[in-house]
Amino acid sequence: MLKPIRSSVLINSIMSHAFSKIDTNLLKTITDTKNLKLGKGFHCQMIISSQFDLILTNYLINLYAKCGDLNFARKVFNEMPERNVVSVSSLMAGYFHNGLPSEVFSVFRLMGFGRLLVRPNEYIFTTVLASCADIQALIEGRQCHAYVLKYGLLFHTYVRNALLHMYSRCSQVEDALVVFKTVLDFDIFSANSIINVFLEHECITEAKNVVRSMVAKIGLWDHITYVSVLSLAAASRDLILGCQAHGQITKRCLEVNDFVRNATVDMYGKCGDVLSSQHAFLGARVRNVVLWTTVMAACTQNGFLEDALKLFLEMVTDGIQPNELTYAVILYSCAGLSVLRNGEAIYALVEKSGHKAHLPVGNALINMYSRCGTIEDAHRVFTTMLQKDIISWNSIISGYSHHGLGREVLEAFRTMLMGGVAPSYATFVGVLSACGHLGLVKEGFYYLNHLMRDFGVVPGIEHHTCLVGILSRAGLLDEAEKYMRYTHVEWDIVAWRTLLSGCRVHRNFRLGKKVAHHILQLDPHDVGTYILLSNIYARESQWDGVLDVRKLMRGRCVKKEPGVSWLQVRNEIHVFTSEDKQHPLINQICEKLEDLITRIKLIGYLPDSSSVLHDVEDEQKQEYLIYHSEKLAISFGLISLPSGAPIHVMKNLRVCADCHTAIKLISNVTGRKIIVRDANRFHCFNHGACSCNDYW
DNA sequence: CTAGGGTTAG
């Protein structure tokens, strides 16, 4: 029933016009401005004056539909003595715009059974096809395509564009192209649609060709074209194209549109220009959730992780409610920084907000826990997820792999295959690293040469590097070198360093020196390689070699990147470097560390000075080793964290051999679990052993 | 009297 209209003025005005003819222009204006209250007044006027002709009633359906009151629209529709195609399409459009595509279908089915006695026209198919696109109902979409052909409606631009869009949303590039090719002189709608089809399927060249062909008609471009072109620039990391689009946008004052601004902020972020991204963000008059999330993502993608956290706080302070993607983005920032406490605080917000069931959030939680070193929690999140997608599987597999849990990786991989989930590029990176951890050489080759092909995944440099790692780890260093020599891959520094690490662990210094010099030819500033090379000479007691490395570094102005370790205690991040003694508790920390060193010396610790690069006397070398940043950080953790709590430490470089031995023994004498995330992987020290099995 | 295309995570 009608709700009472409170405004007496309104009632008076309507009653005074009650018996006059309905002003359809006014009714249209009311519809356009979505003024439901005034609209109901008109409905009253129609009832009172018994004006119920077909066209007027259609106006009424449209009015209720546009105002989102579908129950009323349906009621009016149901009670009509006769209906025409406009009545049906108005109602359908109402359902469509209010996110009820299934209702659109049910009305369409009513037409199909003939009960409505109305022949569908181009308006009907445009709306039904849009609904198919909405819920990716490909089968229904194809049926509509058949009807369209049967009724000869394909040459209506609207219908063609709706078909194009439907196929694009249903990921049917071929069908979309077939439709697109029937378009002789495409309008801006079909152009926008086809650009997005290409974009969605990473056909960057084709998309750019369409854009190029549209340059002559730039006057036709609307704000959606710019959104598409900006997305294209973002996807292809094409800052020049992005700037050109942004220039046009500014000139044509289209930046006021939220979507355009979001796409601009995103484009600059994806192209690596964080400053311009932030600038475009700051220029917004009003900032919605998506805009905040986009700029936070731009920071996260470019490593400005603290900025992302700051923006999140600002956003919440501004009273903007985060959505599921905001949580995903901020969790990825926490993961990158390894700040477990912040990650858990966000988790609490996620639980409270009810966004936990969203896939991106669950996936981001798995990643956050695994990158913060608590793989058990990552596993818990993973197993309690209601649905999982390929990213969920890849996240847990990659997490296990970074923690050196080879068996768990293969177990998850088997479960995934049995569940009918197709593995992707990233899956195989995790699986092949697991083969390395487990020493499964034959299996590694089988996965690369057969299984990957079976699943249509083309092996990339990461996979080949994993094979180098598998061979190296198994001690098959010459085979690893041959593999690199004879496999047609453009090897990068990471791959060569994998082989070099193998040479270090298996003490193959002849090959090690050769590989190190090769790396230094590729990149004369790769500090890690100088350290390893110096290490190799030191272990062979070739002190001339050590001196040569130092001379080489000095000559090339290569400075050892200072080792930095940090850990989170309560709400603070405490940062340690070996040289500086800035920490307020430094005296207690050093005291604790000296005590630890004394205790581990009793169970066999011998400082290993081959890791020291400085020109220092022997007794000073030990000093430098003792005060390596990770040792300081762990000592601090031991005096400031509750007894029994695991100690999580992050480090910018790889753990050195001396610290690795020392930390194993420290975990023994203190009975603590110590988790170190270095530049490469996690080391979980427990009861005197490390999860990496001393290979890293 | 009725209809179409677009933004944020891995």
TrEMBL record:
GO MF assignments:
RNA binding; zinc ion binding
| Stretches forming PPR repeats | 53-87, 288-322, 389-423
Q: Which GO terms describe its biological process?
A: RNA modification
Q: Which InterPro entries match?
A: DYW_dom, E2_motif, E_motif, PPR_At4g14850-like_plant, PPR_rpt, TPR-like_helical_dom_sf
Q: Where is the DYW domain?
A: 604-696
Q: Which Gene3D superfamilies match?
A: Tetratricopeptide repeat domain
**What NCBIfam families is this protein classified in?**
PPR (TIGR00756)
Q: What is this protein called?
A: Pentatricopeptide repeat-containing protein
What is the scientific name of the source organism?
Iris pallida
